[in-house]
């Protein structure tokens, strides 16, 4: 009988030990994410209060759009993937600025759009794979693009980079390794990397802008796992009004 009581006590003790872990997971999924730039769990996240400085808008005069389809996490059925950036509705050949100072990691001013048949071939491959492969995304769908490494100058918590895609042109002489300052003009908006670019027309021009945060645990994008109802307002906190 004594052994029976000990067994019951052990079960209750182990159950009590397991309970906090389950509750923590529940709290993570129900956490208030107001003010967070991304949120994976209670250990991996970034709050606006952890930024050392704010950014300028990449297309001056064009703010974060209201349309959720133009914000992170939106589904992109045509390429079997998800949006990881913000589409700023800048018109064709509108000046695009570096949101913060840093070092150019990518500058592919001479990239040419593939023809529409080849473009659709790559989209079909993505459909067959049920995901957008990194090579198709980076080297076909982004078009002419700039990537800037900001190091740990925006926040001490993560190395940050920003990506500026679908450019019509890149500022002359801007090459990998160059330093740029906050607000420098790095290119002009366009539609390269899109179906309109493949058709060689002037439709659908905009800036597709991404911001990523790196540490030893992985890479995360601005807006990741932020609920739709606060997504825009959280992203807006990044920028100087």
Report on this model:
The protein has 241 residues and is of the alpha+beta class. The protein has one domain (49-236): Glucose Permease (Domain IIA) (Distorted Sandwich), CATH 2.70.70. The chain contains five helices and 13 strands. It has helices at residues 2-29, 116-129, 134-141, 195-198, 228-236, and strands at residues 36-39, 45-47, 75-76, 81-82, 86-88, 95-97, 102-107, 144-151, 159-170, 179-180, 185-189, 207-215, 218-221. The strands form three sheets. Strands 5, 6, 7, 8, 9, 10, 11, 12 and 13 form a nine-stranded antiparallel β-sheet that branches. A two-stranded antiparallel ribbon has the order 1-2. It has a two-stranded antiparallel sheet with strand order 3-4. Strand 1 (36-39) and strand 2 (45-47) form a beta hairpin. The longest helix has 28 residues, at 2-29. It is globular, with a radius of gyration of 22 Å.
